[in-house]
From TrEMBL:
Keyword Magnesium: yes
Source superkingdom: Bacteria
Name of the protein in question: HpcH/HpaI aldolase/citrate lyase family protein
Keyword annotations of the record: Lyase, Magnesium, Metal-binding
Cofactor requirements of the protein: Mg(2+)
Record InterPro entries: Aldolase/citrate-lyase_domain, Citrate_lyase_beta/mcl1/mcl2, Pyrv/PenolPyrv_kinase-like_dom, Pyrv_kinase-like_dom_sf
GO molecular function, one term: lyase activity
Amino acid sequence: MKMRSWLFAPGDSERKMAKALEGPADIVLLDLEDAVATENKPSARKLVHEFLDVNAASRARIWVRVNPLDGPHTLDDLVAIMPANPGGIMLPKANGRQDVDLLDHYLTAFEAAHGLERGATPVIVLATETAEAMFHTGDYKGAPRLAALTWGAEDLADSVGANSNRNADGSYSFTYEMARSLTLLGAATAGVPAIETICADFKDLDALRVRAEKVRRDGYRGMLAIHPAQVDVINAAFTPSAEEIAEAREIVALFAANPGVGTIGWKGGMLDRPFLSRAQQLLAQVDE
């Protein structure tokens, strides 16, 4: 399935969840963590369960962000939502691979208890929200259920005691750009897509477009969204253009017509095998 846009919707708002699902987001993330106050979590769990039941035909698109494993709410979240068979789980504030392994044990038990296929519930991991997690971004290769890695800047700033995570010009400062890079490298090591973090200013769609196009060039394959208005911009940014597709097909055809060569002339320059690999990866995105 496509993973370009991941739109958050608070789990305690039936209206916002419905609006998110009606839109073009590839994945809708029903949030039981930061978007829901502690006193509202029990009612939010009930609403999310009911929403999953009513929209069972769209379950592959409906994922749930549960609360972090080092707090008191995760099991209560899973007890409430797993009988309704969510399309996937977002694990926040993971400290490393061991948290994914623990979540896998929980999910396997719930799947067995509710007659679901074992391993059918994939997981996206927020891999940089704690200081400890930054040292483990490369450890997720072979992690069970792993579908994607993403990163977060706000909780990381809180974890290290920073007053801000931005430079004077509004760009992320060094530690947070490093988090972005480590997430990209960790995802590549694990063989899963890297998903860019949110753009908090949902009214500045031009800035969103610039950032989304930039991180896609770097290797990211999708982006988190906090408002429906951001989804079309994200989908467009992470969809290869007709020109890119045509060029990639030309490169693949050129190497196919010249089997066994390591480098080949093209448009006044030379192409080697990494160019072929990138062209094939781009075409794989189109075929998803």
